[in-house]
Amino acid sequence: MARTDDELEWPSYGFSFSRRLRYIRRHRNLTQEQLAHLSGMHRNQVSNLERNTSRDGGSADPHLSTVYSLARVLRVPPEMLMPDAAVAVTLRSRETADDTAWGAVEVELSRQLITELPREEAAPRSLGARPRD
Asked: Which parts of the sequence belong to the HTH cro/C1-type domain (predicted)?
């Protein structure tokens, strides 16, 4: 089926989600394996979400329950994982416009993460290894 001009460009939103997930996971000092274990997922699922890919070769499109499970483990509001959560939906995610747009997202995420919970308190003590992936 051909894409129409008014069709949502989901890959741009999936890409923004993947960048947010990876950024927050690293800030929380968790590996993909640790995040997967704590959220009841397989590491491949976390990896696919962070690479914006799915098993069928398309863009990542996580279930709402997955987003909430990840947010719970990462100790953030679900909206921190969601691209453009506070603005009206456009055809393409504003966060993917350019590097400046993503830079602004990183600054805002950092600000929120720093004010909400220090890194040391976020990572479970039993899984304290540094993130490698």
From this structure: 21-81
The backbone region for 52, taken as left when phi is positive above 0, alpha when psi lies in -120 to 50, beta otherwise, is: left
Is residue 59 predicted with pLDDT exceeding 70? yes
Cβ 96 vs Cβ 102: under 8 Å: yes
DSSP per-residue letters across 44-63: HHHHHHHHT--TTSS-----
What are the residue boundaries of the structural domains of the chain, listed by start? 10-117
- Looking at domain 10-117, which CATH architecture does it have? Orthogonal Bundle (1.10)
pTM of the model: 0.74
